[in-house]
Every structure is written in C-alpha cells, then in structure tokens.
C-alpha cells in the first residue's frame, strides 16, 4: 500500500470515503506498513506474518482473525504463532499504531 496506490483507487471504491485512507491517518498507517516490511525482510518472512505475530503478542488477544485471498497466503501466516519479535520492533510498532 502506498500513497499512489490509494490515490489511484477507483472513484466508486469504498476506501475513497474511509478516513483511514485519508490524511493524516494514511501517512501514519503507511509508516507502520513500512516498519512491518523492513522487520519482515530482516526476519525472512512476510509483513503479514509480522503483523499477526505482533497482534498475538498482545496479552489481551487470544487469536487473530485473518482473511486470505489465495491459498499460498495461508502457510506463511500460520508461522506467526511461533515468530518471536524483539522488544525494539514491538515498541516501534506500538509507537506508529
């Protein structure tokens, strides 16, 4: 997801009117996405896997409900339960969230 991607959404796309896809929230979300990407690259996994691992690390969370579009997306996210994030990454995610 990028500013350009959001700007090029079709006019009838529901995200055009959603405040989460407009400034200032859009830039905040994109900063978090970028941090998830760089962490995923360092750990050799996907940003989605890192996001699910971060979610599962929260003691108030018992499980994550994740949607898939393709079967090949399932296996990487299943590994999120065993992915260990360091405290620095988690602190950065929390600051950006």
Can you characterise this structure?
With 97 residues, this protein is mainly α. It is 52% helix and 0% strand. The protein contains 5 helices and no strands. Helix 2 crosses helix 3 and helix 2 packs antiparallel against helix 5. The mean pLDDT is 92.
**Strand fraction band?**
under 5%
General shape: globular
Q: Considering DSSP H and I runs of 4 or more, what fraction of the residues is helical?
A: 40-55%
Biggest sheet record: none
Q: What is the end-to-end distance? A: 16 Å
Total strand count, please? 0
Structural class given helices, strands, pairing? mainly alpha
Mean pLDDT: 92
The multimeric state of the shown protein is single chain
- Order of helix and strand elements from N to C terminus: HHHHH
Count of DSSP-assigned helices = 5
Labels describing this entry:
0% strand; mainly alpha; 97 residues
Offer a quick outline of the entry.
This protein has 97 residues and is mostly helical.
Helix-strand blueprint:
Layout: H1 3-7, H2 25-43, H3 47-57, H4 74-78, H5 87-96
């Amino acid at each position: 997801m990028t500013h350009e991607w959001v700007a090029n959404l079709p006019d009838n796309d529901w995200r055009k009117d959603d405040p989460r896809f407009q400034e200032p929230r859009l830039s905040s979300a994109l900063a978090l996405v970028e941090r998830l990407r760089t962490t995923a690259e360092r750990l050799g996994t996907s940003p989605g896997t890192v996001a699910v691992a971060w979610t599962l690390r929260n003691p108030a969370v018992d499980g994550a409900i994740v949607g898939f579009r393709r079967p090949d997306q399932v296996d990487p996210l299943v590994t999120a339960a065993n992915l260990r994030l360091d405290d620095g990454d988690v602190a950065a995610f929390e600051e950006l969230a």
